[in-house]
Design a protein that fits this description.
The chain is an alpha+beta fold and about 190 residues long. It has a single domain, classed as Sandwich (Jelly Rolls). The chain contains five helices and twelve strands. Strands 1, 2, 3, 4, 5, 7, 10 and 12 form an eight-stranded mixed β-sheet that branches. It has a four-stranded antiparallel β-sheet with strand order 6-11-8-9, with no helix packed on it. The structure holds fe (ii) ion.
Length: about 190
């Protein structure tokens, strides 16, 4: 099976950005994820856009990286969804969306990887959550991350965030939109 060109370019740009941004534990996770890029999964479901996706272009406008350009080429093909538990907070319900690029139910269906994106309008707080797999985030906009072992941090355009397995973590946007990619080995 062959992967569509824009998705292959996104993974190539992801590998380069992960290797540039990550060190230590984060780099170990990144290399585990990158090592699985060679296998190709089935194509996933249809694209679905939400109104908050209008913040993606302004978020990317500030970034000239290969990864930002590669993500811009795939984001319109993704199935953007809300967090099921976001209600009854109507402001957050309308102010965020997630999309799985590679992973269960993703644009490319995989059971060994979970790679996706989160967009938020300005002034949003993504609720504290946890999951068993460890995780690396690459920011595509300014934003702040928190976990139970780390104060609120903006890693900057060339940084990353590492969340150890099972740790409670959260993120928030500032005065502008928030856009970030997440990479988890399953
Ligand atoms: Fe997470």
């Amino acid at each position: 099976m062959r992967r569509a060109g824009e998705l292959e370019r996104f993974l190539t740009a992801s590998a380069a950005a992960l290797r540039a941004a990550c060190h230590g534990e984060a780099l170990r996770v990144a290399e585990t994820v990158i090592a699985r890029f060679g296998a190709v999964g089935a194509s996933g479901g249809a694209a679905a856009r939400l109104p908050v996706c209008d913040w993606i272009a302004p978020a990317l406008a500030g970034r000239g990286s290969d990864l930002a350009r590669a993500f811009a080429a795939v984001e319109g093909k993704l199935a953007w969804t809300r967090r099921a538990s976001a209600r009854p907070d109507e402001r957050f319900w309308d102010g965020h969306a997630n999309a799985v690029i590679l992973g269960p139910g993703g644009f490319e269906v995989r059971s060994d990887l979970w790679i996706g994106a989160t967009v938020m309008a300005p002034g949003m707080a993504y609720p504290q959550h946890d999951h068993a797999p460890e995780e690396v985030y690459l920011p595509l906009s300014p934003g702040e991350w928190w976990n139970a072992a780390m104060d609120w941090t903006d890693p900057g355009p060339t940084g990353c965030i590492y969340n150890p397995p099972g740790i409670a973590h959260a993120m928030r946007s500032g005065e502008g939109p928030f856009l970030a990619l997440w990479y988890l080995p399953l």
